[in-house]
Amino acid sequence: MVYPQRNKHRQCIDLSGFWDFRFDFKNEGLTENWEKGLVGSRPIAVPASWNEIFAEGRDFLGPAWYQTEFNIPWGWENQKIFLRFGSINYLSDVWLNGEKLGEHEGGHLPFKFDITERCKVEKNKLIVRVDGNLLKEHVPPSGRTMNYPDTNFDFYPYCGIQRPVLLYAIPKEGINDITVITTIEGTTGLVKVLLEKNGVKGKEANAILTGYGIQIESRISLDATTEIFLNVENAKLWSPEYPNLYDLKVELLDNGIVFDEYSLSVGIRTIEVKGTQLLLNGKPIFLKGCAKHEDFPVVGKGYLPALITKDYDLLRWIGANSFRTSHYPYSEQMMDMADRLGFLIIDETPAVGLTFSKDIIDRHLDLCQRYIKELIERDKNHPSVIMWSLANEPSRSIAAKDFFRAMYDTARNIDSTRPITLVSMVGASERAFEFLEVICLNRYYGWYTQSGQIDEGCKLLSNELDKINSKYKKPLILSEFGTDTLAGCHSEQPEMWSEEYQVEFIKNYLEVLKSKDYVVGAHIWNMCDFKTSQSIIRAKGLNHKGVFTRDRKPKMAAHFLRKLWHKT
């Protein structure tokens, strides 16, 4: 799952740009053999969500077809060649030169195809059919008929090729994957490198760690082991205040000659739970920030580098140090930037709105097991990722505990270094809290209930938090709280929908959380207003709980947070 890169032994080309595109409103493309080539198409930007680009596709979830052509560059003849899709939502069928490569289910995580024996030197025709229609057996599932489209989750079900499509080449024998695990003993950082290789026997691996005036090397025989150990004395640890990164290069050698290499950044840090505390590098950490969404006008959920840099700048502006990838994995570039800037991330699977219906629970579990496995494989080397979140707001069900226990065991078997959580709206009766290391709770007293009564809502919140702590005695993060707020709406006394009410709500909630020594984080819902399905509670098809507007203009609450969090 290592991200494709360019060096002396590896090559990568981004196929993003303008592709040919055609809606399949009558679902006739398969019977009319559109996989052979699109007729009557028009240009579309890739990556992007088609719902934000074409008016007639605003609420059309598919199917739709994409087409592009590419040539194989000079020098790739003796390499393995792959096509990699960063994210397509939701079902994908892929053809190359009229031959089907395969299919994939699920958005937000990458998938790839080996095309070494299937590509030509020139004019390879790549065609992708995308179907984002909502069904109850999908994850996330369809649901509320009062929503249009009928989502069982509160964000828009954007469709399309939404992250970069990469064409890349690697040596036929070489590095498949690298896992980096860091620990700390005194002032020494211990870096363990696990190497997964392909077809390499009788050769050597060399790991070189550089940075902050040091260079450490360790060479092993690949016949003996695939583990490499590097000890860094007086290590510069990674943290939000000091996001120190070392450069790691792993080389494979044959008789002293390098024939493959891969480089990545390494942050030396530990994360653990001790009692009701969350410890980073052995010291208590408090997560302050906002949950957020991948959402912006014109591109929808499409990958947009400028938006990533803007959002991080705004998070830093208000004094945040963390966020959750609600409610799906974000782009790999988003994670890379968090490593560089020192943000802490709760990394969440796409399992939002689960219902545990008997006729689909086994299928959902299969999908969710795959999602958590693929998420960890993708993001395991990011020091910014401090926690895995199995799901957001699943329904109350007796079956939920066993469901999430299976997911938990899968995650724990792959990664023993990070806490695992579940974001719940159930509260103290959430039985999965029995085995999870951290409790995440979403609460809106004073908004959806006790409407207009912030003081009453805060009393209920305080009592519930104490009840949960008394039962589980684990670190607790209030992972969502907020109010819909129309930018420019003001009132003399705090009143629902006004900017004054949002400030008063957030201020009072944060005071409650500050009084609880077992609370280790506060994530406001939401960083920015974002698009949803149309419904009677979503004016203009938007959730207005952002402390910034959808186009990133600050509301009063953003200025309040900036003043508060830069003090602390």
Question: What attributes characterize this protein structure?
Answer:
single chain; 568 residues; alpha+beta; Jelly Rolls; Immunoglobulin-like; TIM Barrel; 3 domains; 8-stranded parallel β-sheet; 32 strands
Any overview of this molecule?
The structure is a single chain. The chain is of the alpha+beta class and 568 residues long. The protein folds into three domains: 11-171, Galactose-binding domain-like (Jelly Rolls, Sandwich), CATH 2.60.120.260; 174-266, Immunoglobulins (Immunoglobulin-like, Sandwich); 271-565, Glycosidases (TIM Barrel, Alpha-Beta Barrel), CATH 3.20.20. The chain is built from seven helices and 32 strands. The chain has helices at residues 305-318, 332-341, 361-379, 400-414, 454-472, 499-514, 556-565, and strands at residues 11-14, 17-23, 42-46, 64-70, 79-85, 88-89, 91-96, 99-105, 111-114, 124-131, 160-161, 165-171, 174-185, 188-198, 204-211, 214-221, 227-232, 246-254, 257-266, 271-274, 277-280, 283-284, 287-290, 322-324, 344-348, 385-392, 420-424, 438-442, 476-480, 519-524, 530-531, 542-543. The strands form eight sheets. An eight-stranded parallel β-sheet has the order 23-30-29-28-27-26-25-24. A six-stranded antiparallel β-sheet has the order 3-2-4-10-7-8, with no helix packed on it. It starts with 10 loop residues before the first strand and ends with a helix. The model has no long low-confidence stretch (mean pLDDT 96).
